[in-house]
Amino acid sequence: MERIYIDQYTGKITRSDVYLVTLTLKDGTVIENLEPRRLFPVSNSNMYITLLDHDEKEVAFVRDLEELDKDSARALSECFKEYYRIPQITKLLASDEKFGSLTWRVETDRGTVSFRIRNRHSDIKCFDGKRVLVRDTNDNRYEIDDYHKMDSHSRRILFSYL
Hints:
Blueprint: E1 4-6, E2 11-15, E3 21-25, E4 30-38, E5 47-52, E6 58-64, H1 70-83, E7 89-98, E8 101-108, E9 111-117, H2 120-123, E10 124-127, E11 131-135, E12 141-144, H3 152-159
């Protein structure tokens, strides 16, 4: 099957499950149980979205959410909110560094958690001068949406590792 490019003129996307969508093409063809995935979830989250079938083969491709009708874009965005849910760090409570490994205790929008960070240079990344992504030793990701909004104690801990 040839790749199908989807925009507001070629197809409509509806949400059918928590992580799945249904694609209805302009000619009336319906393709169900497609799993949307961002190709660049961190750096370009609204562009380059692939729709995969149950064998993880690409069926269709969305170049940009803005090229879709509002309902289709909303359906994909809702799927992504669930699939790419990343705990938001609201406060850094404590930090400890031993033998090159960093342990943080933080408050998130899901409660207090402690985790280890293997390499502060590659596992703590700052984007757009305010957004910070953190990866722990288990490959879990955490996000600080805007570190400028954090309390001074949290910023002090964070700045020592950026």
